[in-house]
Amino acid sequence: xxxxxxxxxxxxxxxxxxxxxxxxxxRTHWINYDIDFFFWWSIIxxxxxxxxxxxxxxxxxxxxxxxxxxxxxxxxxxxxxxxISSALQRIVKDNLxxxxxxxxxxxxxxxxxxxxxxxxxxxxxxxxxxxxxEYKIRQKRLSDLIDKQQEAELAAKISQTEIK
Length: 164
Fold this sequence. Notes:
Largest sheet: none
Helix content: over 70%
Strand content: under 5%
Structural class: mainly alpha
Mean pLDDT: 79
Shape: elongated
Order of helices and strands: HHHH
Number of strands: 0
């Protein structure tokens, strides 16, 4: 909505300034072209109006691309939510049909759905609350933390094998 108001503002400004430039140009004498303030104002205002119209078209194009991206992202989220719903329904049906041999089997199924719902929640959170740069920084920190933990575990395993 904000993009549409910017587009209409810049289009209106462009047309208004271009119109005043046209009036100024028509005021100049056609035969001898007196170079005065109105002559230069007609040229400058026409260029400014043209720039405003170009900027409004660019704003419209960017807004359309962003709108299409948002629609595509919502479709993905709808599919994720549908997948979680279907998985939960399947777990209940399988349980009623006696397909689980133990509670551990059912717990593993529920944990896998829980992991899907967490990734879905994370995707929604990142889209709504986190910028792309913040997300990249967070991912880098997590990667560094995992690397340090793996190095510590590897060093512990190596020291245990040397002791034996």
